[in-house]
Design goal:
Length: about 400
């Protein structure tokens, strides 16, 4: 490693809730080396931090951040951080250690010279959402922003993934993810429809985060929809952010040791889930749900796993967004099925599709009726959410098509 190598202690939360140093990360620019601590390996509560890092005393070398990429910011966070530094080139190490310790995703923490990397300067309260929204708008529109506001937004953003503007906030002793609408570029109420989609998914038996929707007025006094979802990588007690127990998390991208840009295949994800004892039937429900609503942004970073009671399980479903239906353009998913990115219900209901997820035919037939009932309520729920008429009209065809296709399957 180079002379400017940063040595960081890597801490992880064990099943007991206690933190222990799992090892040491040596990072320089875009290169990293990780070594497990012998004491951690010897602990009966220890576990492999990631499948690609099996416990061993041998060092692990990787270009970039490797499996630690979940701990670093994604597209939106990188944009805000680079803007706060007033630079266009930022190293992977800078991104990793620039994340506010309190908002970092999952349970891995980095300590440099005995202190949390990037400090723990606090998380904005719910009342700060209008200011955060206005700063996010300024970043998206490339307007002038005070550096202190940029740093504040970045501390709140942390390592949260995705390209859409977002930030973490504290409300009633819990940590929440606030997802903002874009100041321009959205042709419909994307945030409002995401909230409706979460409600419909929960009706079908899909586990989703606790969530709610707020209307916030921006600097021009325009009402904007903000989606709040409770961070599922934090235990609810105690009621201070600093003392919250962190829950280990890894994206499906990390679980499968894939690279950004690789959409993934349900075959690999289902096999991993089965290997680790996760609920593959729920995974099938999510796959079917995503196909019928046209959730095309279903890549591996938008699926994840939590470590609970000593084993990995599916994290709640998130980032599920319907796309308008176009009869002339086939839905092309980032997650393929058996190598095909145009996925139909018939494939997921075929013998091979059901066998992949371990779903019985009689269960699939019964659940399709539940799915039909839930999707029939989508447009009405959008109205109850006060989604504007144009946004409802844009998405109406998608849900009518979904109900029609499911009804055909049920009648067969």
């Amino acid at each position: 490693m180079a002379k400017n190598t940063i040595e960081a202690a890597v801490l992880i939360t064990l099943g007991s809730g206690a933190e222990q140093q799992a090892g040491t990360l040596y990072a320089s620019g875009n290169e990293c080396v990780f070594r497990y601590a012998a004491e951690y390996i010897a602990s009966p509560q220890s576990f492999d931090l990631f499948p690609s890092l099996p416990r061993s005393l041998a060092p692990f070398h990787f270009a970039g951040l490797g499996p630690f990429s979940d701990c670093a910011p994604d597209r939106w966070g990188r944009k805000v951080f680079a803007r706060s530094l007033n630079r266009t080139r930022v190293s992977e190490t800078e991104y990793l250690f620039g994340v506010n310790d309190l908002t970092r995703q999952g349970a891995i923490r980095f300590f440099i010279e005995g202190k949390p990397a990037a400090g723990d300067e606090g998380v904005p309260a719910l009342a700060s959402l209008p200011d955060l929204l206005n700063t996010a708008d300024a970043v998206e529109q490339n307007r002038e922003i005070a550096n202190i506001e940029l740093r504040r937004l970045y501390r709140a953003t942390g390592s949260l993934g995705g390209a859409r503007p977002k930030a973490s906030v504290v409300d009633q002793g819990a940590l929440w993810l606030a997802k903002f609408p874009k100041p321009n570029g959205d042709d419909w109420d994307v945030i409002g429809w995401e909230a409706v989609t979460l409600e419909i998914a929960r009706m079908t038996g899909i586990t989703v985060p606790e969530h709610r929707v707020l209307t916030i007025h921006d600097r021009t006094d325009m009402p904007r929809t903000v989606l709040l979802t409770k961070r599922f990588d934090r235990a609810p007690q105690p009621a201070t952010v600093e003392a919250m127990r962190r829950i280990p998390y890894m994206s499906a991208l990390t679980a499968l040791a894939a690279q950004d840009g690789e959409g993934g295949d349900w075959l690999d994800l289902a096999e991993f889930a089965r290997q680790y004892g996760c609920d593959t039937v729920e995974l099938w429900r999510r796959a079917v749900f995503g196909v019928v609503i046209g959730n095309l942004d279903d890549h591996l970073r938008n699926h994840g796993f939590l470590r609970v009671a000593g084993q990995w399980q599916l994290a709640p479903a998130f980032d599920m967004n319907p796309e308008p239906y176009d009869a002339h353009v086939p839905d092309r998913h980032q997650m393929s099925l058996f190598g095909q990115d145009v996925i139909g219900l018939d494939q997921l209901l075929s013998d091979d599709g059901l066998a992949l997820f371990g779903v019985r035919h009689n269960y699939a037939a019964q659940w399709m009726r539940t799915l039909e009932s839930a999707l029939m309520q989508a447009v009405a729920r959008a109205g109850l959410r006060h989604i504007d008429a144009q946004s409802i009209a844009v998405m109406r065809g998608r849900f009518e098509r979904a109900v029609s296709e499911i009804h055909k399957v049920i009648q067969q």
